[in-house]
Specification:
about 120 residues; alpha+beta; TIM Barrel; six-stranded mixed sheet; 4 helices
């Protein structure tokens, strides 16, 4: 079973790109080989806990939001990140690849009772 080294997960409002304003689950993975001078998450370089891809999918299902951002560190430095993204990027979802890899959870992952972004934005 594939595992990822995880620094933290949290729900917040997305503040970047075309997803700005959407409630988002952030999955911050541990580790980064890049060491960019402008990095604001150096605490994610080391430490963390191992989690399986199914465990992270369960966190996403229980988050109450449909937008997810996998960030780091450098998430794509972990090979299992591709499995996590593949298992979440279903046809009809909004998948994008940026320094923080983002997608929208399909309804089957978010659950029918999960709050979608439109619920949070428009009451």
């Amino acid at each position: 079973m594939s595992r990822l080294k995880l620094t933290e997960t949290f729900v917040s409002i997305q503040g970047e790109a075309d997803s700005v304003g959407w409630p988002t689950l952030f999955i911050r993975l541990t580790g980064c080989p890049l060491r960019c001078v402008y990095c604001d998450t150096q605490y994610a370089f080391y430490g963390g806990e191992w989690r399986t891809v199914p465990e992270l999918l369960e966190v996403a299902r229980g988050s109450g939001v449909r937008h997810v951002c996998v960030t780091g560190g450098e998430p794509l430095a972990q090979k299992a990140c591709l499995e996590l993204l593949t298992r979440c990027a279903m046809p009809g979802s909004r998948s994008r690849s940026r320094p923080a890899v983002q997608w929208t959870l399909p309804a089957w992952i978010a659950g029918e009772s999960g709050r979608g972004p439109q619920d949070a934005r428009f009451g």
